[in-house]
Write a structure and sequence with these properties.
Length: 221
């Protein structure tokens, strides 16, 4: 399965996917890295690995819709089977959703539907919850509202601040995201408007490497 990975920052989830592929724990290949920022570390990682890349700068376009259309064209030029948002800090619009229907996944640092948006860890601490985590979900027209594919739980410690909780959540993201991609590649998760489990979902321990709580609240109909 060919992946186009979209990232705005240093690319830690991108690296986790690449590592899982190298270990044989994720049946995919990264064909492109696309960013909205010239200085994204993810682009440097792509260059190190010899992976094709592209930058679609929002300021180069007069509107969000025009930028989204350009992003869709850039991503489509690499003919990916799946688009993975891995720390991509822009809202995907209609052009991308139309070009890749039910084929865009995102990893979010909270147990959705709780704490959508850009500050999952901070919001969890502010609300005083005792369990947080991360979610891999399909992207739709809302903000972190698409169908949930899988989740990993993380305890919130009394001593936590946003940075410490975010760091532990991110470790689970690095395990969960490649495992979900692998499950999609192998047909264990069937994507669509209502994603389904084709069989019992088994996450490869080489990808997880931890006893994280995993759930897959998918429709089986």
């Amino acid at each position: 399965m060919k992946l186009a990975v979209l990232a705005s920052g240093r690319g830690s989830n991108l690296r986790a996917i690449a590592d899982a592929i190298d270990w044989g724990a994720c049946a995919a290949s990264i064909v492109a890295v696309v960013s909205d920022k010239d200085d994204a570390g993810a682009l440097a990682f792509a260059a190190e690995r010899g992976v094709a890349s592209a930058i679609v700068r929002p300021k180069a376009y007069e509107s969000r819709a025009l930028w989204d259309a350009a992003l869709a064209e850039a991503v489509a030029s690499f003919s990916p089977d799946l688009v993975v948002l891995a720390g991509f800090m822009r809202i995907i619009g209609g052009a991308m959703l139309g070009r890749f229907p039910h084929r865009i996944v995102n990893v979010h640092p909270a147990l959705l539907p709780s704490f959508p948006g850009a500050h999952g860890a901070r919001d969890a601490i502010a609300k005083g919850v005792r369990i947080s985590g991360c979610t891999v979900h399909l992207v739709d027209a809302g903000v972190d509202t698409g169908p949930i594919l899988a989740q990993a739980a993380v305890s919130v410690w009394p001593s936590d601040d946003e940075a410490s909780l975010q760091a532990r959540i991110q470790r689970e993201e690095h395990r969960l995201l490649p495992a979900v991609i692998d499950a999609i590649a192998k047909g264990a998760i069937v994507l669509g408007e209502r994603p389904q489990l084709a069989s019992t979902l088994a996450f490869d321990e080489r990808a997880l490497n931890s006893p994280a709580l995993i759930s897959a609240p998918l429709s089986t109909r």
